[in-house]
Amino acid sequence: MIVNQSASASSLLSNRFVQAIFMSTLFLQIGIWVRNIAILLFVKKMTNNDAFAVSLISVAEFAPIFVFSFIGGTFADRWRPKRTMVWCDLLSAISILAVLFAMANGSWKAVFFATLVSTTLSQFSQPAGMKLFRVHVPEHLVQMGMSVYQTLFAVFMIFGPVVGTYVYQSYGIETAIGIMGVAFLLSAASLSFLRRDRQDEGEEQKSHLLEDIKAGFHYVWSSTILRTLGGGYIAAGLAFGLIQPMGIFLITERIGKPENYLQWFLLVNGVAMIIGGMLVMSFSSKVSPQKLLAFGLAVNSLVMIAMGLSTDYWFTLGLQFICGGAMPCIQIGINTLILKNTEESFIGRVNGILTPLFMGSMVFTMMLSGAIKNAISLVPLFLIAGLFFLVGVAILVPLFKLKGSIQPEPVKAAGN
Predict the structure, then answer these.
(1) Which residues contact 295 (CB under 8 A, 6 or more apart)?
(2) What is the pTM of this model?
(3) Which of 184, 192, 229, 334 has minimal Cβ neighbours within 10 Å of its Cβ?
């Protein structure tokens, strides 16, 4: 069994597509973490620690996902995926020049634009990457591939906040934004090593855009797994939206530590995610993705409730470790369910339909989180988030008895 796991991992990592996409992700994560931490600290400084302004950073990051995800997913099914990803990275890098120009002329609020543009373009790039993953990675290696992919994200949960804090405190916000632009250029260069898109990938469609959209909704609704996953997405989104912008206030107000302790909480979370990702990789063939997802949601529910009640630094730090260890179960479970239960030609649209359900509910509670925190304090806010996670588990329960994939009913080609 150990030999089989080693052989599978070797086969996965020797895949040219996997190598290129991981290198691209490496550069993007450097830029994104420098951006996230630098903008967070910069906005807190400029607004004198205003909770509403801090929550707007997350809105700028996640609202475009809700607005453009389905549009981007639909076009990802129509366009050539490699070309789409490269152009998105290049356009993101160009947008950084506009941000730096605006800041040079005294408009500090342009930092929100940096997040807004890069997140919007990622709605076209991300589903294109999922489509390439579906094409170039064998099905029996999909869950392991997702595990390795999420482990790479976890590594940056450790180094990203430290690097972002160092860059901002040492060189300022302009340098941090500039690094983000360079990172997008290096990502585009990494993707150029992928082989050219096949002629049948992203050929110009004869169908109308609205017909493709209608077919995408019918496809998701016809799938038991995808339809149920959408309900779980909504519940999880409501929970994450409440706590996403409030982590720094949990540290400074509930625990009474300085704001720079945020980087250590994220570091612990990242270490736990690496360990969790490796564990999932080791038993990926033994646990169904729906059970993996439900387990992650259940753990997050209990942890959120406990974190809201805790006032002890070390206990809260331990809870953060548990939360990070369970996070790969959620991310890997979701992505594996989508990839294993979706035809290649519908990957973009399925991703574009399910993601807005999650992001829309998350942005909704995210916009309210600052006001809720000011009205009822952090404790009930974290308790409510924990209850939303439990609702997500309840929604997924009917999928536990399903074995294999439940394919949707065939969809007629648009225009027939």
Answers:
(1) 326, 329
(2) 0.66
(3) 192
CA distance 269 to 326: 10
Residue 298, pLDDT above cutoff 90:
yes
| Number of Cβ within a 10 Å radius of residue 377 | 14
Judge whether 184 and 25 are in contact, CB under 8 Å: no
User: Is the pLDDT confidence value at 112 over 60?
Assistant: yes
Count of Cβ atoms closer than 10 Å to residue 275 Cβ:
16
Residue type present at position 277 = G
Q: Which residues, other chains included, contact 226 with Cβ-Cβ below 8 Å and sequence gap of 6+? A: 219, 220, 337, 338, 341, 342, 350, 354, 408
pLDDT for 2 equals 44
CA 84/CA 87 separation, integer angstroms: 5
Instruction: Specify whether the CB–CB gap between 78 and 212 falls below 8 A.
Output: yes
* Element (DSSP H or E) covering residue 41: helix 16-46
- Segment 247-262 mean pLDDT: 82
Q: Count CB neighbours of 10 within 10 A.
A: 9
Q: Could you give the count of Cα atoms lying within 13 Å of 257 in the half-sphere of its Cβ?
A: 18
C-alpha dihedral sign at 326, 332, 333, 334:
positive
Structure tokens at 298: 């259940």
Contact criterion met (CB below 8 Å) for 350 and 219 = yes
Neighbours of 226 (CB within 10 A): 22
Q: How far apart are CA 333 and CA 341, in angstroms?
A: 12
Check pLDDT > 80 for residue 384: yes
Please give the C-alpha separations between residue 10 and each of 6, 13, 26, 123, 360, in angstroms, as whole numbers.
Answer: 6, 5, 19, 31, 38
pLDDT at residue 347 in the model: 77
Token output for 75: 């076009």
| Phi, psi torsion values for 122, nearest 5 degrees | -65, -20
Q: Cα(367)–Cα(242) distance, rounded to whole angstroms?
A: 8
Q: How confident is the model over 164-174, as pLDDT tens digits?
A: 888 888 888 88
Place of tokens 């990622």: 122
Distances (CA, A) of 185 to 17, 28, 87: 18, 9, 10
pLDDT at 104 > cutoff 80: no
